Design the sequence.
């Protein structure tokens, strides 16, 4: 990669971070340009960044450029405390002076207050006199930066102790309380509220004081005694950096009636020309800056330090090899933010001559300065416009326009509430209560179908003349019905597919119930657990509270993704005694969460065993022969992926298996503290594609086993297509979640033409119709509702086993409800979720039923388990001609068990 590419990437990422809009900002790691020896390349880079910020005629972003002790202008005072604070003085002075035109004056109240405390002279004793003198000193420091406080103090006059004349003494006696003591008391009260208030940016001081003194502080000035002149230098730095960052974060927040603040569109930039060794003054400041940035979750600062001679490895760093890699990391931080707990610093080694490349010089000359967004109006013009708009609003309000008063400002209604990603989550009937932007059109169609079926069933029951039949019961579907803001796929992981299966199963069940009068009709409520189950625990608590008020709620169906938040939700519902039937969730750990949970899908260990057998015996190499090596792709932060990959590695063996660990930047959960899956980590999908392509180029008989989420498959294929000269063909065996990628507008083989794709399926109903009447009934019901899937996106939904397993889960729960009702002897009021749990625990009377995805063992926990041990599993080969089943292992229907597969034939695991 040419040198100028690295400079270009780094500068572009720097520009993007500085001008990033406030609402999308996240924490940015401090960039440390490491230069062993006497290198000066990093200093030239920092000097170049300073020129970009300085602009030609005006400042483009507020910044500070600390040249350090080696510069002639760096002259700290001899006083030890003031000398120690010299760096902060230079920093704050430059930040104030470089505020761009039209953005107002930068005020730093926390920092100024703490600086006054730190520089206060020591006083004997710790009584009220000491506190009073400390307040006087702090207020004197406030008068140095506040013109209003200075004018009021002057108006109050001088007393004799201050050298005043008799006339001044008399004036001070009269005016002093109004112009001096009252403003001082107001200042002291505001200082206490500023440092001990309830806002997030203020909590750090109360926590610091509590740790120092053992009790929460009640008065700021009393708790600040330890900071007075002569304290620990590191403690001074820590407290001042926290105060400064709290002020900078506050300065970036808009205020309704402050048009100057609305023009603060850039982050504050801190540039250090010479950071020195690990014990230098500058590195001590940078260490405290990094810690404070994480403590306060500060998003308003970008810091770059050059001349790092050695690193103090007291806190972890992100280590990158080149400026290009640093640019990529910073661009990723701008796009996806920085996860809590991730390193706060990024170390970048720089070499001589990087900016001497003529192409780099040419590129930088074409773009010599930062280009922040500009406001169309000036602040004064905006004030006039705001006053005019307010006057108009007041006039309209005075007239009284009714429709505006009736408008509902909250789009989340009923039992829905605003979730983590700004979407409506919770429980609702249909799509309306999840807001106008919940999910995509296909999902809303299914929710509206369920709502329509609920209404038709209610209408039919209300028109009955006989009272002998059962009343309806309610089932809650629990799944991620929204993908968060700007999600590429609003409904991931098979949610749309399994929800379709539940909807058509509800229609089938209710038709039978209303026709016979001897079955229980079912209503369905939808519970949106948020993007990838991020809000699942809170929504589960909402379901529990709703069920306490509504006895008709008898069970929950769903949990189609195995995530740690899913586990927590299952435990909450289980503790409340709620029966649960899973859909496509497969992790082995699901059943361990609650005795009220019953699993439809096969476990990860069973699926991994089938995948290992298929990999060992099937022709998975590009030349039609068996594979010699395997590239196993997994996400260690994802419970499902880590479980499946670990089980596959155990079943297939570690010999010839390379494990690539990739966690996407927008992962909903951080990696677990202890990881049981060994492998090589890759940080970007580009690197993942490069690793896989390189392995195939070295050994053409290499198969790829995809154990990661299906939503990451198409980005991976896009990168493979871009570098496919070295690997024109690859063969992939995917997990059951890979069907998510098959519902995209472009099929995987359209993204990369050299792909041969196999994937695991819970059982494709179309392949079972000859031997399973239930599979035929499912397909008939599906075709009656959706035809042959005219839409491009859902044209493969009929073959997606997630639909069929949703059907089976609903049928399983309905059969349990019917048996529980028959067990009441016709006493409908006795049918509740406790009775249903007893039936499911003991097992259905028939011991099981033939489902659309194979035989379902329903013997219950008392009969040996809450899942089907020999659950049917298939492997599909998919392409332009549609899916073709190449492996079936398990029980298709009663008396039809597939124990072998392939030409071998090979025994099923």
Sequence:
């Amino acid at each position: 990669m040419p040198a100028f590419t690295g400079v270009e990437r780094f500068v572009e990422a720097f520009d993007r971070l500085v001008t990033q809009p406030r609402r999308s900002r996240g924490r940015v790691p401090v960039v440390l340009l490491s230069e062993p020896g006497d290198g000066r390349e990093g200093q030239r880079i920092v000097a170049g960044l300073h020129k970009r910020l300085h602009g030609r005629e005006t400042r483009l972003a507020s910044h500070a450029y600390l040249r350090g002790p080696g510069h002639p202008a760096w002259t700290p005072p001899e006083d030890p405390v003031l000398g120690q604070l010299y760096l902060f003085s230079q920093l704050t002075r430059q930040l104030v002076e470089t505020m761009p035109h039209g953005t107002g004056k930068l005020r730093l109240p926390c920092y100024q207050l703490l600086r006054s405390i730190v520089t206060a002279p020591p006083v004997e004793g710790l009584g009220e006199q000491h506190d009073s003198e400390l307040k006087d000193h702090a207020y004197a420091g406030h008068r140095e930066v506040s013109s209003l406080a200075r004018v009021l103090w002057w108006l109050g006059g001088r007393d004799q102790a201050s050298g005043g004349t008799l006339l001044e003494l008399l004036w001070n006696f009269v005016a002093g309380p109004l112009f001096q003591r009252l403003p001082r008391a107001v200042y002291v009260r505001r200082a206490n509220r500023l440092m001990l208030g309830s806002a997030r940016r203020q909590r750090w001081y109360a926590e610091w004081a509590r740790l120092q003194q053992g009790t929460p502080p009640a008065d700021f000035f009393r708790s600040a005694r330890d900071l007075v002149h002569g304290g620990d230098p590191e403690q001074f730095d820590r407290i001042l950096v926290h105060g400064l960052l709290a002020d900078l974060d506050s300065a970036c927040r808009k205020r309704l009636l402050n048009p100057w603040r609305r023009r603060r569109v850039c982050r504050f930039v801190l540039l250090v020309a010479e950071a020195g060794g690990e014990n230098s003054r500058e590195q001590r400041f940078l260490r405290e800056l990094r810690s404070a940035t994480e403590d306060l979750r500060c998003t308003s600062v970008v810091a770059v330090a050059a001349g790092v001679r050695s690193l103090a490895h007291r806190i972890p760093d992100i280590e990158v090899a080149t400026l290009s890699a640093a640019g990529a990391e910073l661009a990723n931080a701008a796009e996806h933010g920085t996860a809590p707990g991730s390193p706060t610093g990024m170390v970048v080694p720089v070499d001589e001559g990087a900016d001497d490349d003529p192409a780099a010089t040419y590129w930088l000359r074409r773009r010599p300065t930062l280009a922040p967004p500009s406001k169309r109006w000036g602040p004064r013009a905006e004030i006039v416009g705001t006053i005019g708009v307010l006057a108009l609003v007041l006039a309209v309000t005075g007239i009284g326009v009714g429709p505006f008063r009736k408008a509902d400002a909250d789009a989340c209604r009923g039992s829905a509430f605003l979730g983590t990603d700004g979407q409506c989550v919770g429980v609702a009937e249909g799509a309306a209560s999840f807001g106008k932007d919940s999910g995509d059109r296909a999902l809303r169609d299914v929710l509206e179908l369920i709502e329509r079926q609920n209404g038709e069933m209610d209408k039919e029951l209300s028109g009955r003349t006989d009272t002998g039949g059962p009343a309806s019961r309610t089932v809650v579907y629990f799944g991620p019905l929204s993908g968060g803001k700007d999600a590429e796929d609003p409904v991931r992981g098979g949610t749309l597919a399994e929800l379709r299966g539940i909807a058509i199963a509800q229609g089938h069940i209710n038709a039978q119930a209303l026709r016979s009068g001897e079955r229980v009709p079912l209503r369905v409520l939808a519970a949106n657990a948020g993007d990838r189950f991020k809000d699942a625990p809170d929504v589960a608590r909402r379901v529990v509270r709703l069920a306490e008020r509504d006895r008709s709620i008898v069970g929950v169906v769903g949990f189609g993704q195995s995530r740690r938040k899913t586990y927590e939700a299952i435990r909450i519902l289980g503790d409340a005694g709620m029966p649960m039937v899973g859909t496509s969730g497969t992790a082995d750990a699901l059943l361990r969460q609650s005795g009220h949970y019953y699993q439809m899908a096969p476990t990860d260990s069973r699926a991994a065993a089938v995948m290992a057998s298929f990999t060992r015996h099937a022709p998975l190499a590009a030349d039609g022969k068996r594979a010699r090596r395997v590239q196993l792709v997994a996400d260690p932060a994802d419970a499902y992926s880590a479980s499946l990959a670990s089980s596959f590695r155990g079943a297939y063996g570690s010999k010839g298996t390379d494990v690539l660990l990739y966690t996407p930047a927008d992962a909903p959960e951080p990696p677990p503290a202890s990881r049981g899956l060994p492998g090589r980590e890759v940080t970007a999908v580009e690197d993942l594609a490069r690793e896989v392509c390189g392995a195939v180029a070295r050994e053409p008989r290499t198969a790829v086993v995809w154990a990661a989420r299906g939503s990451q498959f198409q980005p991976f294929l896009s990168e493979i297509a871009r570098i496919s000269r070295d690997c024109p063909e690859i063969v992939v065996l995917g997990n059951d979640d890979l069907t998510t990628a098959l519902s995209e507008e472009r099929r995987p083989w359209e993204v990369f033409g050299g792909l041969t794709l196999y994937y695991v399926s819970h059982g494709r109903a179309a392949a079972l119709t000859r031997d399973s009447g239930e599979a035929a009934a499912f397909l008939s019901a599906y075709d009656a509702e959706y035809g042959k899937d005219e839409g491009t996106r859902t044209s493969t939904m009929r073959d997606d086993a997630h639909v069929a397993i949703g059907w089976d889960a609903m049928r399983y729960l309905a059969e349990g409800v019917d048996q529980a009702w028959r067990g009441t002897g016709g006493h409908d009021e006795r049918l509740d979720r406790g009775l249903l749990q007893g039936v499911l625990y003991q097992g259905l009377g028939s011991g099981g039923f033939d489902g659309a995805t194979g035989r379902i063992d329903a013997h219950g926990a008392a009969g040996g388990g809450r899942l089907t041990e020999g659950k049917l599993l298939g492997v599909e080969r998919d392409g332009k001609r549609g899916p073709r089943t190449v492996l079936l292992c398990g029980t298709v229907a009663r008396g039809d068990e597939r124990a072998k597969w392939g030409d071998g034939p090979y025994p099923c695991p």
In short: Confidence is low (pLDDT under 50) at residues 400-409, 790-794.
